[in-house]
Automatic annotation (TrEMBL):
Assembly with partners or alone: Homodimer.
Catalysis: reaction(s): UDP-alpha-D-glucose = UDP-alpha-D-galactose
Protein name per Swiss-Prot or TrEMBL: UDP-glucose 4-epimerase
Enzyme class per UniProt: isomerase
Taxonomic lineage from the root: Bacteria, Pseudomonadati, Pseudomonadota, Alphaproteobacteria, Hyphomicrobiales
GO terms of biological process kind: galactose catabolic process via UDP-galactose, Leloir pathway
GO molecular function term, any single one: UDP-glucose 4-epimerase activity
Family: Belongs to the NAD(P)-dependent epimerase/dehydratase family.
Highest taxon in the source lineage: Bacteria
Protein's pathway: Carbohydrate metabolism; galactose metabolism
Swiss-Prot/TrEMBL cofactor(s): NAD(+)
Species annotation: Prosthecomicrobium pneumaticum
EC number: 5.1.3.2
Coiled coil: none
């Protein structure tokens, strides 16, 4: 049996590929390299370079490689970009996800894991949010993912098809073994940006809004280590393979940190100061969003092992340092 990982050259997908290989699975990646990197794909994985919107390519890859499960990461990930280019986000995240789902159904693959997001909730406040909370995405990005969740539910009702839609909170950090990390060019994610600033790759970090109704005025997020996140996917894969029902599950730790707390953690762990300037709010940002992870723990048996902001930051800094030594230009 082989697992198809779409977006396996990207940040989270490349960690998933290593997690699957570590468990003795065979893996095939489809990636367009739009934001991913050839070097990020573990050498033991088969790789097909193409667009997941090409349904025939996805189907023929599934059939040629004997795929029994699809883990679908390929997509566009930057919330403010989705505000500026909603149709681009609906195309890449919604329309092309439809192609991947259709190819899976046509090829008889009945196990599907999808990268959903906390952005489907909109702003949840500082209290942990459950999966049955009202869905009110604050951005086209969140809506593009919510529509895919809806397609999955309808497909599962009509076909021999079960899925796990995992709603990631804020993914950060890097493989503790140093095999992969976040290499995204022009990154916008807070911990990545702060790590770049700490290593002198950016002149300054801008805080996007300090007038929110939070303790220090900056947004609250639930930062999850990427290794814990890919563990949840592996747990979901085993759940589906043993006949478990489709589910939607949060992936986060249940507590939030403000933008300023994250900046302090990066300063503390790196031992380096860097300039921080206050800027205006960023379009599409939710004020606060924190996961209630009880369902993933109860149904999937997920046990996070790296719930430690300083540890997350430390692994992100180590990967950033690795990129510097490779002369990788961000
Ligand atoms: N990073 C986060 O905090 C976060 C949070 C919630 C959800 N997600 C979701 O997780 C998934 C992976 O995110 P990431 O942070 O690893 O981003 P990423 O940009 O590093 O990875 C996305 C990968 O998909 C590929 N890709 C994009 N469009 C494609 C297409 N049409 N055909 C083939 N390949 C394509 C890119 O080349 C890249 O390798 C995304 O679906 C994203 O929405 C990420
Ligand atoms: O230079 C920066 C970068 C970020 N931020 C702030 O830091 C917080 C986190 O921002 P990120 O860009 O790191 O992450 P988002 O919360 O916007 O989005 C991420 O998490 C979401 C789920 O919560 C989505 O799934 C999405 O794919 C993923 O990019 C936000 O308040 C943002 O305004 C800054 O102040 N300065």
């Amino acid at each position: 049996m082989t697992v198809l990982v779409t977006g396996g050259a990207g940040y989270i997908g490349s960690h998933m590929v290593w997690r699957l290989l570590d468990a003795g699975e065979r893996v095939v990646v489809i990636d367009s390299l739009a934001t991913g990197f050839r070097f990020a794909i573990a050498p033991e994985a088969a790789a097909v370079f193409g667009d997941v919107g090409d349904e025939d390519l996805v189907r023929s890859t599934i059939e040629a490689q004997g795929v029994d499960a699809v883990i679908h990461f390929a997509g566009s990930v930057v919330v403010p970009d989705s505000v500026a280019d909603p149709l681009g986000y609906y195309l890449n995240n919604t329309v092309k996800s439809r192609s991947v789902i259709a190819a899976a159904v046509a090829a008889g693959v009945s196990h599907f894991i999808f990268s959903s997001t906390a952005a489907v909730y909109g702003s949840g406040g500082a209290e942990p949010i459950r999966e049955d909370a009202p869905l009110a995405p604050a951005s086209p990005y969140g809506r593009s993912k919510l529509m895919t969740e809806m397609m999955l539910a309808d497909t599962a009702a009509a076909h021999e098809f079960r899925y796990a839609a995992l709603r990631y909170f804020n993914v950060a950090g890097a493989d503790p073994a140093g095999r992969t990390g976040q290499s995204t060019r022009g990154a916008t994610h807070l911990i990545k940006v702060a790590a770049e600033a700490a290593l002198g790759k950016r002149a300054a970090l801008t805080v996007h809004g300090s007038d929110y109704a939070t303790p220090d005025g900056t947004c609250l997020r639930d930062y999850i280590h990427v290794s814990d996140l890919v563990d949840a996917h592996y747990d979901a894969l085993l759940h589906l393979r043993r006949g478990g029902d489709s589910l939607v599950a949060n992936c986060g730790y249940g507590h939030g940190y403000s933008v300023r707390q994250v900046i302090e953690a990066v300063r503390r762990v790196s031992g380096r100061d860097f300039p921080v300037v206050d800027g205006p709010r960023r379009p599409g940002d939710a004020e606060a969003i924190v996961a209630d992870p009880a369902r993933a723990m109860a149904v999937l048996g997920w046990r996070p092992r790296r719930d430690d902001l300083d540890g997350i930051v430390d692994s992100a800094l180590a990967w950033e340092d690795h990129l510097t030594r490779r002369n990788f230009v961000a």
